[in-house]
């Protein structure tokens, strides 16, 4: 796995949304984007079927999050993170979007920093389902092993920057140096934001246009955007 590229995207997402605590509330991220939320039960039969064809839990279409209110909340959160994965990775690949969601909700470097040694601790700290927590634990062990055998024996630069959001190094540096260091980190993040997107509107437009596959277009034309709910 290309951790550098993956965590470049995750760091950008954390900076874009201003995430600084766990578990990540993906519904709050949807609201920050200005998206509507609509339960599957509030849709007409045709629209509900169309949404469930895309996902049993949730789907993000044209500025609206459609979701199954009866589904487990942790599954819905993962599905929303999965949809963001398509956007931030700029891919239609489902496996890559799943990888993004897992690392986005529980960054491996922070599993390490929070000293989560089992799936229960990951579940409690990061809000993943137990199944997703077990997968994250196995992935974390692989991540740690890869670092142990790497030439630098260090995580990637974006992972270290992500760590600084939650564990800023303040113990050995004077307050003024810490302030300058944090300003430098924030400046680099702002520069990354400017390079990749021009204001939130561009992000919204990209999100709406990102997934233009046949199934999406079929659902859009035939079911989701008619006059009836």
TrEMBL record:
<dbReference type="Pfam" id="PF06114">
    <property type="entry name" value="Peptidase_M78"/>
</dbReference>
<feature type="domain" description="IrrE N-terminal-like">
    <location>
        <begin position="62"/>
        <end position="137"/>
    </location>
</feature>
<dbReference type="InterPro" id="IPR010359">
    <property type="entry name" value="IrrE_HExxH"/>
</dbReference>
<protein>
    <recommendedName>
        <fullName>IrrE N-terminal-like domain-containing protein</fullName>
    </recommendedName>
</protein>
């Amino acid at each position: 796995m290309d951790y550098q590229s993956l965590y470049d995207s995750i760091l950008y997402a954390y900076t874009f949304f201003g995430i600084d605590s766990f578990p990540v509330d993906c519904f709050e991220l949807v609201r920050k984007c200005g998206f509507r939320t609509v339960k599957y039960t509030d849709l007409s039969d045709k629209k509900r079927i169309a949404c469930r064809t895309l996902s049993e839990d949730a789907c993000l279409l044209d500025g609206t999050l459609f979701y199954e209110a009866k589904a487990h909340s942790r599954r819905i959160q993962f599905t929303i993170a999965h949809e963001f994965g398509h956007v931030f990775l700029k891919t239609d690949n489902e496996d890559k979007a799943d990888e993004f969601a897992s690392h986005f909700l529980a960054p491996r470097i922070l599993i390490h920093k929070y000293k989560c040694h089992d799936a229960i601790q990951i579940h409690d700290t990061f809000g993943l389902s137990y199944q997703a927590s077990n997968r994250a634990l196995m992935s974390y062990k692989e991540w740690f092993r890869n670092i142990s055998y790497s030439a630098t024996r260090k995580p990637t630069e974006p992972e270290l920057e992500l760590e600084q959001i939650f564990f800023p190094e303040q113990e050995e540096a004077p307050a003024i140096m810490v302030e300058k260091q944090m300003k430098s980190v924030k400046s680099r993040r702002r520069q990354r934001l400017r390079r990749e997107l021009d204001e939130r509107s561009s992000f919204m437009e990209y999100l709406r246009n990102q997934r233009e596959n046949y199934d999406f277009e079929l659902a859009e034309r035939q079911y989701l955007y008619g006059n009836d709910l």
